[in-house]
Amino acid sequence: MSLRIDAHQHFWQPARGDYAWLRPDDPALAPLLRDFLPEHLHAHLQAHGIAQTVLVQAADSQAETEFMLNLAAQHDSIGGVVGWADLSRAGAAATIEGWAARHPKFKGVRPMLQDLPAVDWIATAPHPDAVQAIQRLGLRFDALVKPGHLEPLLRFLRRWPELPVVIDHAAKPQLVEGWNAGWAPIWRQHMAEIARLPQVRCKLSGLLTEAPPAARDTTAAAAATLRPVWDALLQWFGPQRLMWGSDWPVLTLAGSYDAWVAVSQTLIGELSPDEQACVWHDTAHAFYGFER
């Protein structure tokens, strides 16, 4: 098995108080209301030949980014950290510059666009100083979006054509609603337009939690449900601009790490060996600038 990169995972400690979205009054989130730390993920990485991961923010606080950077300094398996800064503030540039200077594993920034009340925030709010700092420092931008955010995101991308961007979770196609729902034409149109921009990559991640529960029962059922998404992503981005991620531990709401790897292998395994290497490793390695 060639070495792989998990391009999207999280660690957290709810007692830190950063995670407003992890509400104790929501029974659906109850399985996530505990610590998820490197020692809890280690066996999964070992089992599936995953050499490094990208640790992605899960809270809109600079303190959580410091928490993640400290973990990355202690664990070789964390190849890079994508943190959070309030990009609407000019002062965010100094924060980003400070992290980049002190932490070689600091690789990028992610605003939590899906949770912001203004759907067009990304097109209207980011301060030019903050975006320019990301570009100048050779960092990356993770876009956490749903289909309704894609048109504003497209405006942002056209304004900043030199900014390297990756779409998290394929923009969360709302598969549980079916392909006849209103999200589908919006997703298809704007994802195809975004894919024409050469600075954009896309993550095959976070899709099992978007699928109907019945589609998660077997590897074959899940692969069949996700195939239209996978086929579209291959057509638009090609293997050279796709990267695999687990979205662990959010993934555990829909299935196990092993199950997601099996579903992914079913789809990715149909590609040539070189193309498989792109999705499993090479795209993420190059995009985030990992050390060999």
Number of helices: 10
The percent range for helix content is: 40-55%
Please state the CA-atom Rg, rounded to the nearest Å: 18 Å
Number of beta-strand segments:
8
- The outline comes out as globular
Main β-sheet, in a few words? 8 strands, parallel
Which segments are poorly predicted (pLDDT under 50) over 5 or more consecutive residues?
Answer: none
Main sheet strand line-up:
1-2-3-4-5-6-7-8
Question: If you average the pLDDT, what whole number results?
Answer: 96
Terminus-to-terminus distance: 18 Å
* Secondary-structure class: alpha/beta
Listing every helix as H and every strand as E from the N terminus to the C terminus, the arrangement reads EHEHEHEHHEHEHEHEHH
Question: Secondary structure elements and their pairing?
Answer:
Elements: E1 4-9, H1 38-47, E2 50-56, H2 62-74, E3 78-83, H3 92-102, E4 106-109, H4 121-124, H5 128-136, E5 140-143, H6 150-159, E6 165-167, H7 183-195, E7 200-204, H8 219-237, E8 242-244, H9 257-268, H10 273-288
Helix pairs in contact: 3-5, 6-7, 8-9
Structure, described:
This protein is of the alpha/beta class and 292 residues long. Helices cover 40% and strands 13% of the residues. It has 10 helices and 8 strands. It has helices spanning 38-47, 62-74, 92-102, 121-124, 128-136, 150-159, 183-195, 219-237, 257-268, 273-288; strands spanning 4-9, 50-56, 78-83, 106-109, 140-143, 165-167, 200-204, 242-244. It has an 8-stranded parallel sheet with strand order 1-2-3-4-5-6-7-8. The longest helix is centred in the last third of the chain and has 19 residues, at 219-237. The two termini are 18 Å apart.
